Amino acid sequence: METIYYDLRDTKGQQKEIEDKISAAAKILREGGLVAIPTETVYGLGADGSNPEAVRRIFEVKGRPQDNPLILHVTGAQWLPRYCVDIPPVAYVLARKFWPGPLTMILKRQPSVPDETTAGLDTVGVRCPNHPVTLAIIREAGMAIAAPSANTSGRPSCTTAQDVVQDVGGRVDAIVDGGPCAVGVESTVLDLTCEPPRLLRPGGLPLEDMERLIGHIDVDKAVIASLSANERPSAPGMKYRHYAPKAPVTVITGAPIASAREIERRAGPGSGVICFDEYADMFAGRVVRSLGPRNDKQVQAQRLFEALRSFDETDVTEIYAQCPDNRGLGLAIGNRLKKAAGFHVIEADSQRVILGLTGGTGAGKTSALNALRDLGGQVIDCDAVYKEVLESSAEFQNAINVKFPGVFDAKGRLNRKKLGEEVFAKRDRLDELNKIVFRYLLPEIERRVEAAEGLYAIDAINLFESGLDRLCDRTVAVTAPTELRVRRIMARDDIPEYYARLRVGAQKPDDYYRGKCDEELNNAADSPEEFRKEARLFFERLVESILEKKRHG
Ligand code: TXA
Ligand code: MG
Question: Which ligand is nearest to the CA of 43?
Fold first, then answer.
């Protein structure tokens, strides 16, 4: 069939002409046709979401498995009640902040949404894309557009209209070119039918941004690892081999310099390499696609799928890909790379173990850290690094001074007690302070982690709030019974019981740390020496199991 091509890259030009094209695309949709549409994430293959016949054609053209539901694209949260029931308030909170944008919410569906669209599930995914052309088409068509990504099933998603022509040209009624996609990876899929909400697919909206707004979100297992044959994924799409170029892909994780060296060791003349800009020179003679600067995940996301696709025009026999860390957009980029690799992942710094340690006062974190030192480990004390960085950075001091005037004395020394009083029990002031501190502190911690070899521990109270947990191989909560903690800090700091209780009570409960960390080290020992011995054994086993996993996956 002939595919009509609508060029709508420039929406500032001839208004009449633009409106005509939008009306024409909307008309095709109303009549049950298929139209490829631009969004900020990736191109979609759209049809009238309430027309079972039209939706069935999407599956045919894409070669998509029948059990994989589609997302409904709408122009705002006011559309939710048309397609969903039992909508929790948090859906509106998220929509107000992040729509239009790369967030898909899974909600209970109205019975009127056809089974074809939801693949028979009693839930439906809804999202408001941030692209003026597609928003105009939805408005004009007066319907929610059901659309999966426009690639044929299994291939990397399309981030330009040319990709779409390649994959489904001649098999759809129209392709609307809205220019290259600004985000480059698909939307974040968040299940709101459970409590806490669950991340089913990391995407263009970082997990941290959502957690900052609505609190803790569980991360579905399929996001980080491949599911075994008998496991049922929460998002049906997560079980398929995906995004894969023809040549097999191997993902190399770890600090950028370490992963680059690992690829250098492995890649032969017939290999393809996906790497950060800084390392491209190391791979002369191979087919290299650079993903963008190592610290610019936004650019990496934009280039990811094009890089994967482009290898199919070459005759590389294998592909090695450098992988960013899991923070921010890195979680989505790493997920797509790992899926493209069928979760064939090699850890570059296989001799390095980074543990994150956290826990309340009096639980025994200091003894635990000493136990790690006994094993030859080194400790990155975030509080000490904070002081160092603060002392040496006028910019950092200034940033604090602007938001918290008067906390520095005449000699320019920070009055920590005064600052503490200012943020103590004031959640939003504490958030403000943390934001500044993290901005200046994290790059320094990252630098130290990257340079680390062997066993390292990051000692941070705000391990999770800062996102430092994502640099760690494993996180450990040091916990202890409250009564023991009270007695310990009474003895340690020589303070009366009521004050010790106050301090313990002002901190997050052990359950918080327990819920967040991968491991728990409980300290009910009679003496610090005894606990240190127990902790040493605990860490010895933990490190061994981590190394074992790194060696054999
Ligand atoms: O950015 C995007 O989300 C793009 C653009 C076009 O909007 N669309 C997209 O659609 O990536 P698709 O179909 O390629 O991926 C949708 C994912 C699949 O993994 C699917 O299984 C999951 O969302 N999904 C859709 N509806 C669901 C539901 N009711 N429950 C659980 N997962 C669902
Ligand atoms: Mg897809």
Answer: 1
| 124 close to ligand 1 (CB < 6 Angstrom) | yes
Q: Give the Cα separation of 234 and 445 in Å (integer).
A: 35
Encoded tokens for 398: 């200034």
pTM (2 d.p.) = 0.78
Partners of 176 in beta bridges: 6
Quickly count: other Cβ atoms within 10 Å of residue 211's Cβ: 17
Write the residue with the smallest CA distance to atom 17 of ligand 1. Answer: 237
Encode pLDDT of 416-475 as tens digits: 888 888 887 788 898 899 999 999 999 899 888 877 888 999 999 889 888 888 889 999
pLDDT digits (tens, 9 = 90+) for 351-375: 889 999 999 888 999 999 999 999 9
Pocket test for ligand 1, best of 61, 149, 239, 241 (most atoms within 8 A of CB): 149
CA 201 – ligand 2 centroid, Å: 11
- State if residue 300 touches ligand 1 by the CB under 6 angstroms criterion: no
Q: Which SS3 state, helix, strand or coil, does residue 217 take? A: coil
Q: Please state the atom number of ligand 1 nearest to the C-alpha of residue 236.
A: 21
Euclidean distance between CA atoms 34 and 3, whole angstroms: 10
Read out DSSP for 271-335?
A: EEEEE-GGGGGGGTTSEEEE-S-TT-HHHHHHHHHHHHHHGGGS--SEEEEE---STTTHHHHHH
Report how far ligand 1's centroid is from the alpha carbon of 148 (Å).
6
Q: Where are the beta strands (DSSP E) in 111-211?
A: 123-127, 145-147, 174-177, 188-191, 198-201
- For residue 255, how many other CB atoms are within 10 A of its CB? 21
- Nearest Cα residue to atom 21 of ligand 1: 237
Q: Which two tokens stand for residue 186?
A: 């698909």
